[in-house]
Amino acid sequence: METSVFVNIRVAGTRVHLHLQSHSTKQIMIDCEPFGPRPDQYLPNALEYTGLKCKPAVRKLFGEWTFDVNAATLNELLPVLIANLTRSHNEGAIRYAEWTPHIK
Q1: pLDDT tens for residues 20-63?
Q2: Alpha helices of 1-99 — where are they, by DSSP H?
Q3: Nearest C-alpha neighbor of 70 from the set 53, 84, 45
Q4: How many whole angstroms separate alpha carbon 43 and alpha carbon 55?
Q5: CA–CA separation, 29 vs 96, rounded Å?
Q6: Under a CB-based contact definition with an 8 Å cutoff, are residues 20 and 95 in contact?
Q7: Which residue from 5, 14, 16, 82 puts its CA 20 to 30 A from 53's CA?
Q8: Looking at residue 23, what DSSP letter applies?
Q9: E strand or H helix at 5, and its extent?
Q10: Cβ–Cβ under 8 Å, residues 20 and 36
Q11: Which of 64, 34, 30 is nearest to 44 (CA)?
């Protein structure tokens, strides 16, 4: 079940729209060094042995890319995902990673 809240307010004469949404879609964020391979090249390694599928990045901020993951069982797969991301970090492939619900 997905829940959305829409808020329209006026701040100092400027209209502000705020859309809050529950996270039925989970996210993984991966950050890489500048001028190197981009996070989408490391995503298959991160998802290895999880059976998870990702869509193309929903947010790209320099080397920090966010991907939606369609998985109701992400919490059960977190130990494998964390191990894969930690291995990529220890090998120097990625700078850091985050996942829902801790994502910015």
Answers
A1: 555 556 788 999 998 888 999 888 888 888 887 777 888 888 88
A2: 39-47, 74-90
A3: 53
A4: 11
A5: 8
A6: no
A7: 5
A8: -
A9: strand 4-11
A10: no
A11: 30
